[in-house]
Amino acid sequence: MQTRPKPSTNRASFKLLATAAVIGASLTLTACAGRGGGPKDTAYVARDVETLYASAKDRLDRGQPTLAAALFDEVERQHPYSPWARRAQLMSAFSYYVARDYNKSVESAQRFLSIHPGNKDAPYAYYLIALSYYEQISDVTRDQKVTEQTRTALQELIRRYPSTEYASDAKLKLDLVEDHLAGKEMEIGRWYERSGNWLAAQIRFQNVVDNYQTTSHAPEALYRLAETNLALGIPEEAVKNTAVLGANYPGNEWYQKAYELVQKRAPGVTAS
Fold first, then answer.
1. Residues 181 and 208 grouped into a single domain
2. Cα–Cα distance, 121 to 38 (Å, whole number)
3. Is the pLDDT at 49 greater than 90, yes or no?
4. Measured distance between the N- and C-terminal CA atoms of the chain, rounded to whole angstroms
5. Among 101, 109, 211, 252, which one is most buried in terms of CB atoms within 10 A?
């Protein structure tokens, strides 16, 4: 079975994120945005909070998210006790996300949660963290540490705020993430199998069956378990794997292959 490509964030997810950012940024802007265009925009110059925030929002609207993030950070530094500082933290996290600086996006969102854990915008911060990890998921041929971080972040969001629109999107992404992790287990298991390391392969395939049984990789995992059990001289277990495969995926190509395999390699053997 071919490995699946890295899942990507769909337009609906980004729209959800961006809409929340715009709504959440609805503090009245009473001053004109700054008109500078270079490093001087983020240099430490004491400015009133409305002007500074407006300048940051202007940069974001003009497609300069990195500069916007730096200016939102400046709002927090210059006016830490202002109501604008709380909003600037989230807008900084969103700006870093737009700029694809996902590590800084996570840092900003986590800082917001550490200071305002019970704030009404906390679900949005958790969503930003989850999406920032999600965007960094690599191909299954590479280390999947960030995929595990994504799963943890999505599960935390769903656990804390199950009734929010963010949780609804998180549930969809969690399915893709778990399929991705299962794909990694399958790849490692197949590599062990090709190397003749049957027991190590079996452990990987069993992990998919036990922990990722709702993913698209479960049927192949059961077939591979039948293969490895036959190689290990346990035909009864191979027959049992095939029976489970047939009961759950009767029309699947992997069941047909498993059935033919045990008929050829273990004729007359019954499950123990």
1. no
2. 32
3. no
4. 29
5. 109
pLDDT tens digits, one per residue of 208-256: 999 999 999 999 999 999 999 999 999 999 999 999 999 999 989 999 9
Residues 131 and 219 grouped into a single domain: no
- Residue that the structure tokens 């003009």 belong to: 62
56 with 156, same domain: the answer is yes
Nearest residue to 69 via CA among 46, 45, 100, 48? 100
The pTM assigned to this predicted structure is 0.78
Name the one residue in this structure whose structure tokens are 């490509």: 5
SS3 259: helix
Could you tell me the two tokens for 61?
């609207």
Question: C-alpha angle 117/121/127, rounded to 5°?
Answer: 90
- Domain CATH number, residue 37: 1.25.40.10
Residue carrying structure tokens 């006016």: 79
pLDDT 10s digits, 135-178:
999 887 788 899 999 999 999 999 999 999 999 999 999 999 99
